[in-house]
Amino acid sequence: MSVNYGSKRVVTGAHYGLRDWLAQRITAALMALFTLIVLLQVLFTSGPIGYESWAGIFAKQWMKALTFAVFLALAYHVWVGMRDIWMDYVKPAGIRLVLHVFTIVWLLACLGWAVQVLWRL
What we know:
By secondary structure, the protein is mainly alpha-helical. It is built from four helices and no strands.
């Protein structure tokens, strides 16, 4: 009979715990800060908010860089969450691998699209 408690506890798994918990919180905080910055810019914009106003908010290079950094944070945030969901709820390894690869490809495609939108490539 093996002991699975106390100091003799057998721990298995990927051991992502603290790192991923912290990454989720940091990326969420960055996204919340970005949302606040955009909201403040919208609130302090005079006149009606149309395409020109939105384009003006994102026209500055620092805002494009910040927006892309937030897209990167969002992609990592999504990756950690989806990876955990796939690992927790999809037991067949082959299906889980396909879902992991699909998630990575989808997120990279979204980041490529973000670059195109921000810098009009």
